[in-house]
Amino acid sequence: MAARNGNHQPKGYRRLMQKDTSTHFESSELPRHVAVIMDGNNRWARVNGLSGSAGHRAGAEAARQVVYSCVKRDIKYLTLFAFSSENWLRPNKEVKGLMALFLAVLKRNEINQLHLNNVRLQFIGNRGSFSAKLQHHMRDVEELTAANTGTVVTVAADYGGRWDIANAARQIAEQVKQGKLRAEDVSVATMEKYICLADTPMPDLCIRTGGENRISNFLLWQFAYTELYFTDCYWPDFDDTHFQQAMDDYGKRQRRYGHLNIPSHSDELPVTGSMHSA
Asked: Are 151 and 78 in contact (CB under 8 A)?
């Protein structure tokens, strides 16, 4: 389902973060797990007469904003598609700039602010492709926030849904090879033990900005019953008002998962491999 409520008007790429957590929201109509495909940084930069690197910096600010949008609504899980497996194919200068920005963000004081707000940060993807220095800072951030019990922010970096499924299949095949698992016992539940985000409920809602209506190899397994929300708004312009519009749209939907009864969240679904969509 596509929602067209974007705003392409020029804005400065730095924004104040909305950290006010006093606003009350009805949790019964909110998703428990939100995934975001953050698209449109380069196009936003062109519209505003700025460089591509400025667009990515603005996108990093928008990512911080959406974290606080989730925190103040008590949304438990947020997964951000920061860097896909295919992004390595972009121009070398842009990739280097993205890696430098990624490292700079991990070293910012903002990480400590997120820590003080009880946010837990973790990463999924093939992190072995990144520099040793970047991997070190990723581990530091995960260790710093590991005991936090608030919103869990997962950053997908060098991640692809096909890679995720293939990686899980390889691990299962190794278990079968070692005699620890019988091939006939492999089920949906088995697969979900090895897939990324195995320890979290499946996403209830995926938001994609930038005007494209596709999921671009993001969380292919996990999105089986995820609601999709598309907006023309370029990612750097996506603020708390846009986020609330996505929440309002989600609150109007009925999620049946092929059943007559309507579970509140995707984690209430049985994981048996026998469920069929109506």
From this structure: yes
